[in-house]
Structure to design on (179 residues):
């Protein structure tokens, strides 16, 4: 068995397929190998228009911003410094599911404060490694002065073919929603 990662209907999906008995030259790999490919810099793949959200912002305001911008995570900052990340999942599991009123509870109360990040001048494979190790789908991107300059998502890396095992490792930690 082997894994392919394919874009289906605008969504990246992980598909398992049989390889036993299929000659290697007829197997189709969706992800290219590294031979002959130039390495991509994170700066070239990241989303650059990123704004910090204040930790004092209510969950309702953060959720509205996520909805309006069609995003699932916001970097949290104080005094122009990254202090955490808040995801749609944080809002649901640590806020709403814990009976915290979204109009009263703040981003700072539910955000993930352990920050995993990468630098804009690093290779895309570095972001892949960090995502796989920490089982996250998005990483803030910092410059060497440790200022936020963007966000790189697993989908950004997939376009470059750099997702290697990050998707597999992140998905392993997720329970099957159909179970």
């Amino acid at each position: 068995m082997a894994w392919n990662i394919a874009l289906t209907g605008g969504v990246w999906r992980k598909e398992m397929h049989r390889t036993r008995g299929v000659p290697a030259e007829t197997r189709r790999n969706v992800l290219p190998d590294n031979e002959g490919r130039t390495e991509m810099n994170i700066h070239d793949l990241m989303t650059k228009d990123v704004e910090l959200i204040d930790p004092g912002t209510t969950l309702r305001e953060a959720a509205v911003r996520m909805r309006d911008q069609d995003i699932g995570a916001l970097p949290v900052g104080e005094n122009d410094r990254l202090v955490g990340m808040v995801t749609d999942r944080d809002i649901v599991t640590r806020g709403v599911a814990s009976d915290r009123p979204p109009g009263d509870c703040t981003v700072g109360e539910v955000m993930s404060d352990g920050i995993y990040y990468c630098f804009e001048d690093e290779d895309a494979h570095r972001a892949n490694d960090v995502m796989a190790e920490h089982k996250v789908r998005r990483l803030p991107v910092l410059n060497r002065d440790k200022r936020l300059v963007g966000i790189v998502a697993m989908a950004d890396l997939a376009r470059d073919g750099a997702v290697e095992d990050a998707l597999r490792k992140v998905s392993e930690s997720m329970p099957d929603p159909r179970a």
In short: The beta strands are 2-8, 11-17, 73-78, 81-87, 118-119, 138-142, 148-153. Confidence is low (pLDDT under 50) at residues 1-37. The helical segments are 42-45, 59-69, 88-95, 107-110, 124-134, 154-160, 166-172. The chain has two domains: 1-30, 35-172.
